[in-house]
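User: Hi! I'm working on a homework problem where we have to compare a predicted structure to a textbook description. Could you give me the structure for the chain below?
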Amino acid sequence: MTNRRQKFILDLITYTLLILGAVIMITPFLWMVATSFKFPADQFTKTIIPNPATINNFKELFGTHLDFPLLFYNSFLISGLITIGQIVTCAMAAFCFAVVNFRYRNLLFTLLLITMMIPAQVTLIPNFIIFKWMHLIGTKAPLLIPAFMGGAFGTFLLRQYFLTIPRDLVDAARVDGASLLRIFWNIYMPLSKPALAALAIFTFQGAWNDLLHPLIYLPSVPNTTLTVGLAFFQQQVAQGGKFTVLMAGGLISILPLIIVFFIAQRQFIEGISLSGVKR
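Assistant: Happy to help. Predicted structure tokens:
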């Protein structure tokens, strides 16, 4: 009886803390949604449900000199290509580290993991010098080229998942005369959809929310991304005082992330649980 009571108290405390944390995290999001439908005169009110509600903020957002449809398209194009590049290259590298036996494999994989400890800001200036020497500043190439050169996190995540796939499948395919490329494409890729979905969501979210790199390589509006456009728009809003329009822009900017997560949430959760990766 004492153990059941202790378990009940522990569960009660755990669920209370989880609910409290969920409320703390979701409150700013609810405030942003509510503010985006408020009139400018009501933007500082504490009401969650706007009364009266309006969609004029969204009309005014698309009526500014910033071409938000083009900014949205640029962000979607860049984020999509970065996601594709990371999935393809990281999957190929993970397959080599998990299946192919070659000399110094473990050493090279360890060196790859060490690169995860290097902050992206450290390599920012050298990369900028290289891309400037290549006359690529002002184009999308500096954002896309690194994505098609693999990545430590994606390679590690997919390698961990590839190791859970039975090696007997590889041996049987090799007996039937299948090449490594065929084994990779017809066996490992179809069986790794949960891990690929997890990597796709991580990569798309990071590329979509990235402000630093587009601001450096694509500083001109409207050829830049949505995050940079909203940052420029924030300066104008701060002068005009219409934060309702800014919240409308913020709501539109996070809708693709919400849609992508809810579409692939089952594969995402399964991939994270099976690979044992936390981020």
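For your comparison, note the following. The mean pLDDT is 84. The chain has 14 helices and no strands. Good luck with the assignment!
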